User: Which sequence fits this backbone?
């Protein structure tokens, strides 16, 4: 399947006055402007079979069919003129996720609607290719899955979920001799195998053999494969729907810190497994993917104590922020949390944790108008289903792998090593005297 190398940041409008007249042929410059890309990227589209070109008579340049260009622009999203960023703030053009007015969109489509109506694998295919593959399923290659499981099994028992995922990715890479194929088709092939390998390499939680379907397979959803690695409580349809939707909602969120790290790795033409490893390294920070674990522990305490007031007071007394609240990109409630809370209301076992989360929000609202974010929603899921504290981090990491791959696909089409900032040196100016008086000594006799 070919990749649509999107560069737009806004949704495509049906009544678009910028469409070229039917039958007209466009120059390379006009095509690049319409698609919102560089001329070099236009020829990359040609080489991948996404655009046809005809050599202009009497010229060394090529021309492109306007209707075909317009169709590609509709699939990838036409870029509007971006606002001028604050001084010193870098901007990376992307056509994957747009966040504006307290909503977010995957390739111009409301991400919450996609998550409600599509499974995680379908959402992943959409952000990778701009095409909705109904019924998509991912299957782990046996060699990669076996290598990943052996590597994970060798870790100490106290290893965290992210430790296991990082090791699984490295082991899967070693088992894939085609990992250095950075063509869109090669990258997507690796990604479709890597994500279920990450899930399948995690050990089941506190129980024996897996039930039918939980071990993976071409007809098994990723959410069903992941569930027994998060909880030993049998999954019902409503609970699996929450997990599947959470994976879809978390697939991407613009240029979060881990995504930026992934793009830097891709800019150096690191293979997809290395790109995912870079993202996982950043994700483990308490201000990013690990934030849901803090919310899990707080919510557990609220449920145990029967009230949020003393728990919130303890956090504030010790100078800690109350986890699971607020998001710098949303003035209101995180739309991801809004969707998950709605689904969790249909899970009877989640009632106590859901009420505790609402108590936390209402308690803190007396002094700070902070709304619930997705970490608090993940905590409701993990607490109510008997999952460990790092379960939300696991869900985050597996889901966001899809986004890292999407951004890698974009970055591979850009100028290599473009993300090489120059340092502003503030140290001592040369020449400085050589540090002494240490003298090199020879080997001891």
Assistant:
């Amino acid at each position: 399947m070919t990749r649509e190398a999107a560069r737009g940041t806004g949704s495509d409008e049906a009544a678009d006055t910028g469409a070229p007249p039917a039958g007209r042929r466009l120059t390379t410059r006009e095509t690049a402007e319409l698609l919102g890309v560089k001329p070099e990227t236009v020829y990359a589209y040609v080489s991948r079979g996404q655009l046809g070109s005809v050599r202009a008579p009497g010229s060394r340049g090529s021309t492109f069919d306007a209707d075909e260009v317009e169709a590609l622009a509709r699939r990838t999203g036409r870029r509007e003129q971006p606002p001028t960023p604050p001084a010193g703030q870098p901007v990376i053009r992307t056509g994957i996720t747009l966040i504006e007015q307290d909503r977010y969109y995957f390739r111009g489509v409301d991400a919450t609607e996609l998550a409600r109506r599509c499974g995680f694998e379908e959402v992943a295919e959409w952000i990778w290719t701009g095409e909705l593959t109904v019924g998509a399923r991912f299957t782990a290659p046996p060699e990669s899955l076996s290598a990943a499981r052996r590597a994970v099994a060798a870790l100490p028992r106290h290893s965290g979920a992210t430790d296991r995922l990082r090791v699984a990715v490295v082991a899967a890479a070693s088992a894939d001799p085609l990992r250095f194929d950075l063509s869109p088709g090669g990258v997507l092939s690796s990604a479709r195998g890597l994500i279920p390998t990450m899930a399948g390499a995690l050990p089941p939680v506190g129980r024996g053999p897996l039930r039918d379907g939980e071990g993976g397979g071409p007809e098994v959803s990723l959410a069903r494969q992941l569930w027994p690695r998060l909880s030993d409580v049998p999954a019902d349809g409503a609970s699996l729907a929450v997990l599947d939707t959470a994976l879809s909602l978390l697939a991407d969120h613009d240029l979060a810190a881990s995504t930026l790290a992934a793009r830097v790795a891709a800019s150096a033409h690191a293979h997809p497994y290395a790109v995912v490893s870079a993202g996982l390294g950043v994700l483990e920070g308490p201000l990013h993917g690990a934030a849901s674990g803090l919310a899990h522990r707080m919510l557990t305490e609220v449920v145990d104590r029967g009230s949020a007031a003393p728990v919130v007071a303890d956090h504030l007394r010790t100078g800690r922020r109350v986890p699971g609240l607020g998001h710098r990109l949303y003035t209101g409630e995180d739309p991801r949390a809004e969707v998950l809370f709605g689904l969790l209301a249909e899970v009877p076992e989640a009632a106590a944790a859901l009420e505790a989360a609402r108590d936390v929000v209402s308690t803190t609202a007396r002094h700070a108008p902070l709304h619930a974010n997705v970490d608090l929603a993940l905590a409701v899921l993990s607490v109510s289903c008997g999952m460990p504290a790092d379960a939300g981090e696991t869900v985050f990491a597996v889901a966001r792998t899809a986004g890292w791959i999407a951004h890698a696909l974009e970055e591979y089409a850009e100028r290599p090593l473009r993300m090489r900032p120059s340092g502003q040196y503030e140290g001592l100016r040369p020449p400085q005297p050589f540090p002494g008086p240490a003298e090199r000594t020879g080997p001891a006799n």
Remarks:
- The radius of gyration is 24 Å.
- The mean pLDDT is 87.
- The first helix runs from residue 28 to 35.
